Amino acid sequence: MYQLPVNNLTRIRRARKQVKKALGDIGLEFCKEAAEEFKEFCPNEHIVKGTLCLDICAWDPSYSKTQVNLISNL
Questions:
Q1: Number of H helices, E strands in the chain
Q2: Residue 27 structural domain
Q3: What is the rounded distance in angstroms from the CA atom of residue 41 to the CA atom of residue 48?
Q4: 3 in a structural domain
């Protein structure tokens, strides 16, 4: 497959930087709007107390690879 050579590479790079900056600004604005909407949200106390929070992380920092090797060799 043949690809045409790229001309005026500096212009393309400049345009990419501008697009990246614009997308970053849009994302920042979206996050700020979402944060403002979240500030208005205040659930009732009985909703907060009735919420079940589970720890789904099974990773234990004390459970190292050497411990796994010792257990599997038994």
A1: 3, 0
A2: 9-73
A3: 12
A4: no
The helix/strand/coil state of 50 is coil
CA distance linking residue 36 with residue 71, whole number of Å: 51
Could you give the CA distance from residue 8 to residue 62 in angstroms, rounded to a whole number?
55
Q: Is residue 24 part of a domain?
A: yes
What tens digit of pLDDT does each residue of 23-40 get?
888 888 888 888 888 887
Q: How many structural domains compose the chain?
A: 1
Give this prediction's pTM.
0.38
Please report where in the chains the tokens 């090797």 appear, as a residue: 69
- In angstroms, the first-to-last Cα distance of the chain is 57
User: Is residue 1 domain-resident?
Assistant: no
